[in-house]
Amino acid sequence: MTAHAPARYLLAALAFTAACTACAREADNAATALETRPANGKDFKPAFAGQTRAPGIKSSFEPTVSVVASGLKSAWAFEFLPDGRILIAERAGNLRIIDKTGKISAPATGLPKVLFEGQGGLLDVALDPQFASNRTIYWSYAEPREDGNGTALAKGVLSEKDGVPDVSNVQVIFRQMPSWKSTMHFGSRIVFNPDGTLFLALGERSVPAARVHAQDLSMHLGKIVRINSDGSVPKDNPFVGRSDAKPEIWSYGHRNIQAATLDPQGKLWEIEHGPRGGDELNQPQPGRNYGWPIITYGIEYVGPKIGDGLTAKAGMEQPVYYWDPVIAPSGMIFYTGDMFPEWKGDLFVGGLNSLKLVRLKLQDGKVIGEEWLLQDQKARIRDVQQGPDGAIYVATESAEGQLLKISKGS
Fold this sequence. Notes:
Layout: H1 5-29, E1 64-69, E2 75-80, E3 86-90, E4 94-98, E5 122-127, H2 131-134, E6 136-145, E7 148-161, E8 164-175, E9 190-192, E10 198-201, H3 208-211, E11 223-227, E12 249-252, E13 256-262, E14 268-273, E15 279-282, E16 321-323, E17 329-334, E18 347-351, E19 356-363, E20 366-373, E21 381-386, E22 392-396, E23 403-407
Antiparallel strand pairs: 1-23, 2-3, 3-4, 5-6, 6-7, 7-8, 9-10, 10-11, 11-12, 13-14, 14-15, 15-16, 17-18, 18-19, 19-20, 21-22, 22-23
């Protein structure tokens, strides 16, 4: 044995002790699931380990929460403009701009009429990838029609006059068909692809007579569609050329999607509302069937199982993750900023009736941990965005109608 051997063993022992301490700390943070209430689907079993009730995790720091703006009325979505101001949509049909002091502008002029009833109204808003040069925005909304209503997608050019935003050159580039006399489950989220196409997530309109058509490829109900920025159909969509299918359809068998985004690798993910139980996280693939209402981990609001009470069926995709009881998801991001290195790559989703921001840690496409944030705010969280400063921002449906900023430090 050399004279340096004891020191070498001591260093090895110290390293082992440090590693064990880190493992213990991780184990403490991920011991049990956060959800302890009984599931609504009493005899439903997950299809694989970790599909629901992942271990609870806890961040090593307490984030700072501050108010960016107050006085919003049912804000549904928001986007950061290149100059750091915020474009925000209110469900009543108002599109406003929040400046850097938190002042909220008057409503934009030029928008088409929306159906502000039930769950309808002005929904998502998105900036064209070339917004800095073309000033084009896109928005989805519940469109009133003579034979009912449905989700529509429009685009226009945003300008300002005397501090008031205006939208001109308005074009409706997509209409969900058929129209339906329902004020529920419009969806919807707009997600731009790096290839210039965009995804639009659509609800199945809720009522039993409509929801069955989530399985019908001749209708847009309960679908994700993929279109070009002018509304035309990409030639490589999965159902192009089929006489029995709408060529816009990307995936089907969805219920009511109010959260969708791309991951850091450019893949689409969505989270949709289940009924009583069964909120789902999916990574939609072209042409795949996600099962609603044939399979679900939820039950009817009034109690009985849905259909044959199935949670799995050949030819139908399983969710990556599900919640029962529900979180009522709306708005989501994969965090890619530098302010929170510990959260990099994690998924954040707003909770409506659960009154929280949910953080999911994923590994190899599976959820391995879940954290609940902002529960002290006691506010419905409608949308989530990452700011240019690396902070996380959320729009709430609290009585104060706030836009909150989550940052690090005092």
